[in-house]
Amino acid sequence: MTEPFFNTIKQEYHQDSNPFSSSAPTIGWGIALLLLGILIGKQLTRQQPPTTASDADSTDIDHIDQLAFTQALQWVSYGKNLERKEQYEAAIAVYDRGLSQHPNNFRLWHERGLALAKLQQFESALESFDHAYRLRPNDGDLAHERGDTLLQLEQFEAAIASFDICLRYHPDNTHILADKGYALCQLGQFAEALQCLNQVLKLERENRSILSYAHYYQIEALRHLEEFDAAIHSSHLAIEQYGDQNFTAQHQVIQQQITEAALGSGIAANNQEANHPAT
Questions:
Q1: Dmax over Cα atoms in the chain, in whole Å?
Q2: d(CA 15, CA 138)
Q3: pLDDT by residue (tens digit) across 184-239?
Q4: What is the phi-psi region of residue 154: left when phi exceeds 0, alpha when psi lies from -120 to 50, beta otherwise?
Q5: Which of 24, 181, 192, 242 could share a disulfide with 197, CB 3.0–4.6 Å?
Q6: How far apart (Å, rounded) are the C-alpha atoms in residues 160 and 187?
Q7: Helix locations, 204-244, DSSP H
Q8: For helices 26-47 and 5-12, what crossing angle results, to 10°?
Q9: At 14, phi and psi to the nearest 5?
């Protein structure tokens, strides 16, 4: 914390050279007052917080109801500016004002949904995306973002339908393919999931996060399909490539599943032999 200005003055002048002493010449008073003014000015400058862009914007944020835009894109632009400053609730209020004037504007509904999703208010985000979807049912970007929101809400079938719209325009988008593969796994449709996830592992070359995500659920699909040789092989590669303990734990589950399957086969064989003894 900055020291009070009178402490600074006290450090500048010793008691025996006090400029306020009655024995000081008249000119000394002028110099002392000048120095005092300079010191006080510097101290006040240090204590005064600088004006920031967010301070300047706070008045606008507090008076959103006074904004007088007439064009939908003006509301969109103002809201996006607030989002860049992570002022998402204020941005949503701006989009709501814009929608009161332009209730069928695709961009306003779309941007409102994105802002709500950033606040993890997924049900409200989906409502906005659904409004936008009714206005443009074949918009690829909207289909992607709406699908991600449906995924968060565990509405897997609807998410897949939305991803399929996007894949019409971006068939090699590994992010969407990986999410679709995950959704199919959650629905127990492992053969279909495997097709998507294998495609991700074939196409993706740079994004390690997408690769790891797709690799994990590819192994899960193989495991549930009881393609144990392929699952173990893919698991070894994943452990070597990512060094992630989730893959190690997954590998142990596969080994246990193989052991249980072998024991089950042995028991079945023994039962069959007992039921049909050699003559």
A1: 134
A2: 83
A3: 999 999 999 999 999 999 999 999 999 999 999 999 999 999 999 999 999 999 99
A4: left
A5: 181
A6: 10
A7: 208-224, 228-242
A8: 140
A9: -85, 160
